[in-house]
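General statements about sequence and structure are easier to judge against a single worked case. In the encoding step, the backbone of a single protein was reduced to a row of integers, each denoting a local shape. The record that follows shows the chain in one-letter code together with its fold in token form.
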Amino acid sequence: MANGHGGADPPIVLFHYASGRGKQHPLKFLAGYRGRFLQCDAYQSYNALAGVNPVDYLADTLRAILDGHPKSRIEDLMPWRYAQPSSLAA
């Protein structure tokens, strides 16, 4: 039986230390990452990974849900599909 992360094996938890706080560190460390999920804190440097501001994404997604975004199009609300607020209109 598959777990919520999409595989039968347990998910990996990883910590990586970088000597600075610039966006080059997560970009370098995660270069080539092709996983389905990436959970991190809200540190601004992570925005460079996908060009998505997590605060904007969350606000726009919650607004789309409150405005009645159809359940049949839930995939449209995923972060890898997020481009701009108008793309979430129902």
